[in-house]
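Bench notes, afternoon.
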Amino acid sequence: MEWITSRKNPLLTQIRKLASGSGRDRREAGEYLGDGRKLLEEALKWRAPLTTVVVSEGVELPALPSEVRAVQVPRDVMETISPMKTPQGALFLARLPETRPPETLTGDRYLVLD
């Protein structure tokens, strides 16, 4: 597991941008931010395409797929990157799903959600 202490680290800067940004920022980055241990467990359970998991020191990291980057940060650094007033000590980045419509549609009726 990586240990990051610098608040100016590029990963932490990216997380701050996603936490305070808009949907446009998420689409440009191709990732979204999830915050909280319970949400992380659900993301793992449902096989969300995780790229990075960040935990604060003292928080146990759940078993992660080998391709997921695991990072630990001091608690004061977690407070600067978490969008929550009281951070739960775990957050993650996951790839956005592909949203292109199919090239051909079959049937008579269509419902498009955005």
